[in-house]
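User: Hi! I have a protein structure encoded as tokens and I'd like to know what sequence might fold into it. I'm fairly new to this, so please keep things simple.
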């Protein structure tokens, strides 16, 4: 469990001068661990903050995941143009980290889509051009590539200025699938496209307070937002921010029941996540041990049954040999008897055999007389 928690609570390796995605790093690292994706595709990689976080999670959890970063690295109407140093810096970083499971695809999104088979992508991150038409187009073109476990992330759902249309499109599509949204760091919408989703993601998408929901969605959102803010402010600022946050929340209890409820949700949600992780790992270990023990017992029982079967077969063969020998002996004896009964000597001595009892008595009488 320590390795799993460390994946989304540790410090990220990839930090650049683009701060817009930093607050979502803990969540995306946790998401990688929950989904265990085979293929991840990012549309709009730029400096690689989000890509680096996903790579770090995959590497830390030792998953057999393939990650693709798709971008022209020329910029667009929202980011503005940028030079070749952005792509070169990201390439150098990936090579230094020895992330052989990552491939940068330098092309337009429409040109890259043919590289992927339908139903092959488990996580898709749409963070390219942010106009309404562009985001809608990217979703419609790439949707068929999502697997049964497919999850789509839309960045900048909370930005409503200039020509940003992600929030508008998110408002149209979020209700069509299980979904949830983070409002911090420009907003991140998470859409659960595939029917086979981890229970943890489905719980986040359910309405707060619904029966059967173990983790209150708002409390969990607060946890990931707090972890994201810690990354933005740095390790030292992280510790100070947590202390201030806890102190502020404790003081807020005095301001009314609403503040008290929020504090309890935050603390209980955090404890629930830890308890859930502990329970899952303990159950997995117990089931593995139980299965190993059962397998060992089955092997012993199989060996005993095999040995007993071999012994029974050997006894049966021995009995068969004895029966055959007895049968042969009986047949020989019967044949000899028939020969004796049909012989001339047997017929000649028949009167002697008949007189034998009388001769015996006569001899005994004679012996008695002689003794007298």
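Assistant: Happy to help. Inverse folding works backwards from shape to sequence: for each of the 372 positions I chose a residue that suits the local structure. Here it is:
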């Amino acid at each position: 469990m320590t390795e799993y928690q460390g994946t989304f609570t540790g410090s990220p390796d990839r930090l650049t001068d683009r701060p817009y995605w930093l607050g979502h790093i803990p969540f995306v690292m946790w998401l990688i661990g929950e989904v265990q994706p085979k293929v991840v595709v990012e549309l709009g990689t730029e400096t690689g903050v989000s890509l680096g976080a996903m790579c770090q999670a995959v590497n830390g959890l030792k998953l057999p995941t393939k990650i693709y970063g798709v971008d022209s690295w020329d910029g667009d109407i929202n980011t503005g143009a940028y030079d070749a140093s952005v792509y070169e810096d990201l390439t150098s970083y990936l090579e230094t980290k020895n992330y052989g499971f990552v491939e940068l695809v330098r092309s337009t999104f429409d040109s890259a889509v043919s590289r992927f088979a339908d139903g092959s992508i488990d996580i898709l991150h749409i963070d390219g051009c942010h106009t309404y038409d562009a985001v809608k187009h990217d979703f419609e073109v790439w949707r068929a590539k999502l697997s049964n476990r497919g999850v789509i992330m839309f960045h900048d759902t909370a930005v409503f200025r200039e020509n940003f249309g992600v929030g508008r499109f998110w408002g149209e599509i979020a209700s069509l699938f299980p979904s949830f949204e983070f409002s911090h760091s420009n907003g991140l919408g998470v859409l659960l496209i595939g029917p086979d989703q981890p229970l943890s993601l489905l719980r986040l998408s359910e309405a707060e307070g619904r029966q059967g929901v173990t983790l209150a969605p708002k409390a969990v959102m607060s946890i990931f937002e707090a972890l994201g803010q810690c990354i933005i402010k740095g390790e030292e600022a992280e510790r100070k921010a947590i202390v201030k946050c806890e102190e502020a929340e404790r003081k807020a209890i005095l301001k009314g029941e609403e503040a008290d409820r929020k504090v309890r949700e935050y603390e209980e949600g955090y404890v629930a996540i830890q308890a859930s992780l502990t329970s899952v790992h303990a159950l997995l270990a117990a089931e593995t041990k139980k299965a190993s023990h059962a397998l060992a017992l089955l092997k012993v029982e199989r060996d005993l049954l095999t040995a007993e079967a071999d012994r029974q077969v050997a006894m049966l063969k021995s009995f068969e040999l004895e029966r055959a020998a007895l049968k042969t002996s009986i047949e020989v004896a019967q044949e000899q008897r028939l020969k004796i009964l049909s012989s001339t000597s047997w017929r000649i001595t028949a009167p002697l055999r008949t007189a034998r009892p009388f001769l015996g008595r006569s001899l005994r009488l004679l012996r008695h007389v002689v003794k007298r």
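A useful reference point when you look it over: Strands lie at 39-43, 66-71, 75-76, 80-81, 102-106, 121-126, 146-155, 179-182, 188-192. Feel free to ask if any position seems puzzling.
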